Every structure is written in C-alpha cells, then in structure tokens.
Amino acid sequence: MSFVTRIADAAKRVLAEPLLHFLVLGAALFAANAYLTRAGVDAGAPSRIELTLDDLRQIAVYFQAQWRRPPTQEEFGALVESKIKQEVLYREALAMGLDKDDEIVRRRMAQKMQFIAEDVASAYEPSTAELRKWYDANSAKFAQPGRITFRQLYFSPDQRGGRAHDDAAKALTRLGNAPIDAKVAVGDPMLLQDYYGDRSSEQIAKDFGPAFATALFALTPGRWQGPIESGFGWHLVFVDSIVPGRVPAFEEIEGDVKTAWLGEQKAIAWQKAYDAMRAKYIVLLPKPPDDFMADAASAISPGADVSSVAPPSEATPE
After folding, report:
1. What is the pTM of this model?
2. Domain 146-243 top-level CATH class
3. Which phi and psi (to 5°) does residue 243 adopt?
4. Alpha carbons 201 and 242: distance in angstroms, whole number
5. Residues 6 or more apart from 313 whose CB is under 8 A from it?
6. Could you write out the three-class secondary structure of 268-307?
7. Domain boundaries in the chain?
8. pLDDT truncated to tens, each residue of the chain (318 aa)?
9. Cβ–Cβ < 8 Å for 287, 77
10. What's the CA gap between 96 and 115, in Å, rounded?
C-alpha cells in the first residue's frame, strides 16, 4: 500500500469521526453567536449627540441677550440639557416618521428655504451712493402725509331730521369770527371727540370717512367753516393748523431707506431663487368640475370652526 493511499484512508477515518463533526459545529455556532452579540451591542449602542464650543457659546449669548447677565452654573446646565432634550426628541420624531405629511413641518421647512435665499441679500452692504440713487427712484414711498389740528361741532340728522344742515349753517353765521373754543353755538353730542390734534388724513378718514377728510384738508386755518358732511351727519369745523405733507431729504431718513432697500433686495432674491427652484418641477393639477367651489363651500357647515382648516401656504413648494 502506497503512502498516498494510507494518508487518504486515515483522512476518511478522521472525517468520519462524530467528535470532529461536533467540534466543527460548535466552532461555527460560537462564531455566529459572537457576531450576533457584537451586532446586538452595536445596534443597541446609544446614538451620539455632540455639542461644540460654538453651541455652548451660543446658548450663553442668547441667555445674556435676553436677561442682560451671564447665566449661573445651574441655569447654564439647564439650558444645555434643554438643547440636548430638543435634539433627542427631534431624532426620535424623525425615527418615528413624524415629519412625514405634516403641514406645519412642511411650512417651516419652506420658510427656512425662504430665509436662506433672503440671507444672500442681507450679506451685501450697500454704499451711500447706491442708497441715494435708489431713494431718488422711490422717494414717493417715504412721503410724509400732511397733518391737521381742528375742532368740530356736530349736527345730528337723527335728532334734527332734515334741519341738520340748515341748523349748522345758521350756527356758522352766529359764530362768525369767533375763536376755536367759542361756545356760541352748541352742537349735538356724539361718540367721537370734538378736538383732534396733529392727525393725518388717513386717521381722520377712519373716524369721519374719506370725503370728510378730503374736504377738511382743503379748508383755510383760522376760522369756523362748513357745514361739511360725514358719515354721521353735518359738522362745523375750525382748523387750527395744517402741516403740509412733504418728502424728507435723504439724510433725514437714511436708516429707513437702508431698511426698505434691504427689504426689497430680500424680496428680489427670494423670487429669483424660487423661480429657479420652481422651474425644476412639472406640476400636474386635475381640472376642477364646474361646481367645485360650491361643493367646497358646502363642505363647511354654518357655524363650523374654519380656523382648524389649514389654508395652503404660499411658501410651500409644489
């Protein structure tokens, strides 16, 4: 029997031994158990949350900006833990898919996209020459309205009927050149005050109506005039003073001009960014039936709380 034959026979006997089978199977089970144990430890290991020095500095700065003093150790520790709590809850919420199909989350993310686009414009510092040139083209936006100080006497159609206008005219004749505080003629009581100091046309219009405000600013100061009609009835008016409207010089309001310029640049930057993003999408909309709006209106019953119906956000991307 050759040497090779003897080796082959010995190998067959060894491989046929049940003990060898047991040892190989045990080694395989041990290796599998070790692998699964390590995988389990890795899977159950806590996720890492790392706060940087900048994070901690920002927490302290925010506190000091709000309370005008540095936080104590206890306060700072509570603030740090609050930051950690927010991050933990945020990650857990993501893991649970709570960010999916949430209108509030969608709006917030859309809003952040708008802020990012606007921040590009905020980073640019305009020169005085640029602001002045922009102001020259937009000075009408900064026009200051005229202002008026006056006293009024009221004549009520509810109390006087058709005589209200004539009674006001007769009272004006008696007043003549009487001063602003004359008590010669007595009007009727009303809910509005009888004396208005330093008011704009818009303010007067809110109380008496646009037609009354327009007529009031056309009067000459220093004497009783009228009757002027408002939404309430008829009035005699003594204009004490009128300050004409004007457009201020650039130097007077340079700070306001810069704020308005920045607001416009933000709007332009946002619109440009959105147009670029919008161009990447093809939006498919169904054709509403003819009675679509009527059906939508009927879906909300009378007296229903429509505040719970979230309106579509203009900032929400398609």
Report:
1. 0.53
2. alpha beta
3. -105, 115
4. 11
5. 103, 106, 107, 110
6. HHHHHHHHHHHCCCCCCCCCCCCCHHHHHHHCCCCCCCHH
7. 3-44, 101-143+249-289, 146-243
8. 554 455 445 445 544 554 444 444 445 444 544 444 444 444 456 788 888 999 899 999 999 999 999 999 999 999 999 999 988 988 898 888 888 888 888 888 888 888 888 887 777 888 999 999 999 999 999 999 999 999 999 999 999 999 999 999 999 988 887 877 766 667 899 889 989 999 999 999 999 999 999 999 999 999 999 999 999 999 999 999 999 999 999 999 999 999 999 999 999 999 998 899 889 988 887 887 887 677 666 665 555 554 444 444 444 443
9. no
10. 27
C-alpha to C-alpha distance for 120 and 270, rounded to whole angstroms: 9
Query: Closest Cα to residue 236, out of 156, 296, 312, 307?
Result: 156
> What CA–CA distances, in Å, run from 293 to 76, 164, 289?
55, 48, 9
